[in-house]
Amino acid sequence: MRVVEVDTGKTDAPGRPDILLLATSRLDLAAELVALGYRFRWTVELFFRWLKCILGCRHLLANSQDGVTIQVYLAIIASLLISLWVGRKPTVRTLEMIQFYFTGWATEEELMAHLDNLKTLPK
To answer: What are phi and psi of 21, to 5 degrees?
Structure first.
């Protein structure tokens, strides 16, 4: 194991450290590559958080690579269509309303009223 010190370059950001300490077992990589891998890993974590929390994809519907790929593409397409419709990124409440509509718990009028309300909110 080794510890890699990474300068975040965010000296004025409150609550964020100036130096990050990363523990790694990758002794064959340069410190810059370890830092780059951490940065990419964090981007992937944020994407899956968005996929799970905002789009409601808490469980994968398939375990195969093709099944996961299709589910991710469908989630992104749904998010983009909602964004185009209401002019802003979808919220958890919007996705809940769409799910309620498809399960029969909300009428089309209720869904459209929710979407129209989103169009009037400030961005």
So the answer is: -105, 120
Per DSSP, the three-state class of 6 is: strand
**pTM as predicted:** 0.52
Residues near 108 by Cβ (< 8 Å), separated by ≥ 6?
101
**φ/ψ of residue 36, rounded to 5:** -65, -40
Q: What is the pLDDT of residues 42-98, one digit of tens each?
A: 888 887 787 777 666 677 778 888 988 888 888 788 888 888 888 877 777 887 888
> Which phi and psi (to 5°) does residue 28 adopt?
-85, -10
* Nearest one of 2, 22, 23, 19 to 10, comparing CA atoms: 19
